[in-house]
Automatic annotation (TrEMBL):
<dbReference type="Pfam" id="PF01541">
    <property type="entry name" value="GIY-YIG"/>
</dbReference>
<comment type="similarity">
    <text>Belongs to the UPF0213 family.</text>
</comment>
<protein>
    <recommendedName>
        <fullName>GIY-YIG domain-containing protein</fullName>
    </recommendedName>
</protein>
<dbReference type="InterPro" id="IPR035901">
    <property type="entry name" value="GIY-YIG_endonuc_sf"/>
</dbReference>
<dbReference type="InterPro" id="IPR050190">
    <property type="entry name" value="UPF0213_domain"/>
</dbReference>
<feature type="domain" description="GIY-YIG">
    <location>
        <begin position="1"/>
        <end position="77"/>
    </location>
</feature>
<dbReference type="InterPro" id="IPR000305">
    <property type="entry name" value="GIY-YIG_endonuc"/>
</dbReference>
Amino acid sequence: MTHFTYILLCADKTLYVGCTNNLEKRLKEHNELKGGAHYTKIRRPVILKHYERFRSLAKARAREAEIKRWTRKQKLAFLHKNP
């Protein structure tokens, strides 16, 4: 199964990092459903800025944790280099 690590740009210009096995469904949840992440629920709409594919959940989660440790400045520089 394919897993994804992704970065969203929220309406308030903050960044959200997550992982999922169904990127399309998860984006819909972030933007439309009551059951989405609380952080994005109050910062809609969100825009997908970057995603990466992984063959295992463990690798996707490890990448998510790595990106979450970055500063905002590092995340923005990464997004600028990897649109």
